[in-house]
Write a structure and sequence with these properties.
heterodimer, A: alpha+beta, D-Maltodextrin-Binding Protein, domain 2, 2 domains, seven-stranded mixed beta sheet, 39% helix, 15% strand, globular, B: mainly alpha, MetI-like fold, two-stranded antiparallel sheet, 2% strand
Chain lengths: 440, 281
């Protein structure tokens, strides 16, 4: 028995050694004898799809990297070793590889992580022709430009959309307000008031949540946008504008007056996700995918229709930009195969591959040539229309120290929602601490 | 012969010394060294005392030190003395009941932190069991100082089990003849506890108090899992800040400087406390 236990422990130990630092090599024969290395964040971030783009349920997926191996790189002609850098949304594993002189040739990930390296210190500039540049949405290029040079290519992105409980709103006779998917803050407040009068105080207008950074784009960025406020402008923190103060004061009002679900300082994105299926919330930030299919209520009492809307506009505001989160790719300056690495980057960011990614994941395109490839998805079409009409909101994802500054935002909201600081004091603290980080 | 003995002594000590040098002495030395550098995984630049100066100019980090102190002040006396009372009560009970009490208090100790956290998240939810029992809506994890007390409550519940076991074991080493003699002299249970158990348990209590100060002041897991140091940094602690600086922001030099200052603070408290208990003994 003792021997069996020791043997089992040894097997566990050995297998755990093999399990760490997992890589996958895609072998192709295309004239380049070497092997390129591609760093990605595999695992849950990318849904599992086979080479035909068919969705594979989680328990049937063979491994974390099948998406990259079977779908994305299937048509690339050279050998590619894929490295999975998934590590709690940090770049620690990649940092360690760079420190050890073993950076991958190409890195493709969420721009919030890529941008730490997409600069003259770590990356090679990418030269695009005018025609190629013209194919990108201008707003998608801004976060990847440094000192006039392009150090990364923007890929597809997700978008934070406002989703309303159409069934609830129609039940109080105000469905007509939703007609053109655009409304004002006074219309929104009237809807919330009517719902609360009819159904009681346990029905809320929104779920503000500030326990952590996860989902900040759903919780607060939409409201900032609704008041014409910005968090960042040209890499500087500008949230202390008149619009910024107004937006945060409005969120404070929602929190104090019972419009928002109570306890916002301690709620996280999970509270937001479950709110819509509880059926007692007028609106919430969410992904567009939630709309256009009947949503079953958590208690099994029926279904509701989730409906995409723009965030309500404050007086004088005509456009409400949408918070988006792009992926991006870059080539490390340490590569021994710059030419081939750039080929790989261009391949991943090619119209054909990006179309595949958009189609498979319902993501939005940063290249015009990708076109409308998700034609059969009305949620995607509606969200795209809203993005095209309103533009995008700068979440700071283009900053090199994005994650560090981003971590200052939840405590700022918490200070406001708990009443420990005034809006002005909280904003000043955010700006002072954030600016110190950015200038360090 | 003497030389042979010395050689074999050194050989026996070698694995222990190697282990100590590699996994204790070197990391401590390296941390102190790093604290004078602007160090990330990818680069290191000597900056002298800048990290230390920055710490004293950073209100959030100073506040994290104060929060660690507050947690220590509140939790340590409770997790030192309450288990003593429980162990003393249990000591007079039937063996089976004693085992049952120890087992009940020990369950949270053997449970993984994240599992305990999940249970408490459910209990402390605004609509959770705790609020239902109290008949109030307290935002345990979303308001101050409720979050501080909520985390303290969780730590106390998890931390007491092992101490009860240690106290119970220590009590069984007290010579029962002392209790018999006291009974003959007419002592009641309370007098026995005060005049026999208390003084004989004092060294164990002193030891527990010492290790609890060191352990609780390093409070990290539950603030991280329950509140991420919030709301508004209300439960942010020194060790949580070290973790964030090192593993979220990659500022290993700065994190090391916080660690060095923290070690000095804890070391000082530890020395003072040892001195106090030695004098008492």
């Amino acid at each position: 028995m003792k021997r069996i236990t020791i043997a089992l422990m040894l097997i566990l130990l050995v297998s755990s050694v093999w399990a760490t630092g997992k890589t996958e090599t895609v072998t192709q024969n295309g004239g380049f004898p070497g092997t390129l290395t591609l760093g990605v964040q595999g695992g849950d971030r990318q849904a599992g799809f086979d080479k035909n783009g068919k969705f594979i349920p989680e328990d049937e997926r063979s491994d974390d990297l099948m998406y990259w191996r079977d779908l994305i790189l299937a048509g690339f002609p050279y050998n590619v070793e894929i490295r999975n850098y998934a590590a709690d949304s940090t770049t620690i594993k990649l940092d360690a590889d760079i420190a050890g002189g073993d950076a991958p040739d190409v890195y493709w990930d969420y721009l919030g992580r890529v941008n730490k390296y997409a600069n003259s210190k770590y990356a090679v500039p990418i030269n695009l022709t005018f025609e190629e540049l013209d194919d990108y949405l201008p707003s998608s290029l801004i976060p990847v430009m440094k000192d006039g040079e392009l150090y990364a290519l923007p890929g597809t992105f997700w978008a934070a959309i406002m989703v309303v409980n159409k069934t609830l709103i129609e039940s109080v006779g105000l469905g007509n307000i939703l007609a053109d998917r655009s409304w004002t803050i006074s219309e929104y407040l009237m809807v919330v008031d009517t719902v609360q009068q009819k159904y009681g105080d346990e029905y809320y207008g929104y779920v503000l949540f500030a326990a952590g950074t996860g989902g900040d784009y759903w919780s607060s960025f939409g409201w900032m946008s609704a008041f014409g406020a910005k968090l960042y402008d040209n890499g500087k923190i500008v949230v202390d504008s008149e619009e910024g103060i107004k937006a945060l004061e409005f969120m404070q009002l929602m929190n104090e007056s019972g419009i928002a679900m109570p306890g916002a300082a301690g709620l996280d994105y999970k509270a937001n996700l479950s709110a819509m299926v509880n059926g007692n919330v007028v609106a919430a930030g969410n992904s567009s995918n939630i709309a256009f299919t009947p949503l079953e209520l958590k208690d099994g009492s029926g279904f509701i229709e989730a409906y995409i809307m723009e965030w309500p506009r404050a007086p004088g505001i005509t456009e409400v930009p949408v918070a988006v989160g792009p992926d991006a790719g870059m080539v490390f300056a340490s590569t021994q195969h710059e030419l081939e690495s750039k080929e790989l980057l261009r391949y991943i960011n090619s119209t054909k591959v990006q179309q595949m990614i958009c189609k498979a994941n319902g993501r939005f395109a940063s290249r015009k040539s990708i076109g409308n490839v998700v034609k059969n998805n009305p949620a995607w079409i509606t969200a795209t229309d809203i993005i095209n009409r309103n533009g995008t909101f700068d979440t700071g994802v283009g900053l090199e120290k994005y994650s560090e500054v981003r971590n200052l935002w939840p405590p700022t909201l918490q200070a406001i929602f708990t009443g420990e600081l005034t809006v002005t004091e909280a904003i000043k603290r955010f700006k002072d601490e954030g600016t110190a980080i950015l200038e360090d | 012969m003497k030389n042979n003995n010395q050689l074999s002594a050194w050989l026996f000590l070698l694995p222990g010394i190697t282990f100590f040098l590699l996994f204790s002495a070197f990391p401590i030395f390296r941390s102190i060294q790093l604290s004078f550098y602007d160090a990330s995984v990818m680069s290191q630049k000597f900056i002298g005392l800048k990290n230390y100066i920055d710490i004293f100019h950073n209100e959030r980090i100073l506040n994290a030190f104060i929060n660690s102190g507050k947690f220590t002040l509140l939790i340590v006396p409770i997790v030192t003395f309450l288990p003593l009372v429980i162990a003393a009560i249990g000591y007079r009970m039937h063996k089976t009941l004693q085992t049952a009490i120890r087992f009940a208090y020990y369950i949270p100790v053997i449970s993984a932190g994240p599992i305990v956290t999940m249970v408490w998240l459910w209990l402390l939810n605004p609509n959770g069991l705790v609020n239902q029992i109290l008949g109030k809506q307290i935002f345990w994890l979303g308001s101050n100082p409720a979050a501080f007390f909520a985390i303290s409550m969780v730590v106390i519940s998890v931390d007491m089990g092992m101490t009860i076991i240690i106290y119970s074991a220590a009590m069984t080493t007290i010579d029962t003849e002392l209790f018999d003699a006291a009974k003959i002299d007419g002592c009641n249970d309370r007098q026995e506890d005060w005049y026999i158990t208390r003084p004989l348990m004092l060294p164990t209590v002193g030891f527990i108090f010492f290790i609890k100060i060191i352990g609780i002041s390093q409070i990290f897991l539950y603030p991280l899992l329950l509140t991420s140091g919030g709301p508004n940094y209300g439960t942010n602690t020194a060790v949580l800040e070290i973790y964030l600086q090192a593993f979220r922001y990659g500022k290993y030099g700065f994190a090391s400087a916080i660690g060095v200052l923290f070690a000095i603070a804890i070391g000082t408290v530890g020395i003072l406390q040892r001195k106090f208990f030695k004098e008492r003994q």
